[in-house]
Design goal:
It is a single chain. The chain is rod-shaped and about 130 Å long. Strands 1, 2, 3, 4, 5 and 6 form a 6-stranded mixed beta sheet that branches. Helix content is about 50%, strand content about 20%. The protein is an alpha+beta fold.
Length: about 230
Amino acid sequence: MNEKLRDFLKTGKGKLTVACGALLISWIFLLTQIGGNFSSWFPNEGRREALRKEIKKLETEQAEQNKKLREMDEIRKKYRAMIENSWQYERDGDPELLLRQIVESTAKETEISLNNLGSVRTSRINDDFYFAELDVSFSAPFENLMRFIAKLQENKPALPWRRITANLSMRPPHQQNTRVVTNTATTAATQTTLMFNGTIRVIAFDGELPPIKGKMLADMQKQHGGAGK
């Protein structure tokens, strides 16, 4: 019997049988060492309840992470919108040079003679944004003033006003006498002249465009007519 067993083990089938038996024993040993009691492999009410609590905890954590992701995405959208609505150096040119030119040309188109047009002042907000401000003052009829403001609002990017004051002028432009309004049809209407003072303040962007949305912003720039004005 022993000789037959030895002869069998010398064959390929016998060696394979021994190898499979050793592998099976190894698996059983590992399972008992790592998995503990075999009873733990079968579900019971206590383990089900623990599993439900763990799943609920993970769902709560996932909901919190999703909320944070939505908040971060909202911040990114607002940042991209701020970039798009600001004066971009690469797209719109240098505001220190062009802002004065825009105001001067707009005043000429609306028949306004500027009393004073200051230099463009800049102040840094952060690494990507800065303010560019320009003081404007003149005397003009009310109609011309409204046309001037409306014309500036058509500019892209927008030119918001940080402050505006407009007071009645005691002496109209070119030293003309104020004409008095009467109820007679033959009397000319009074031309109301205003002393205007204001400060234009634009937010300018000179940082790097976000790399992920760079193509989208580049497409937006093309819609504005390309870089520079």
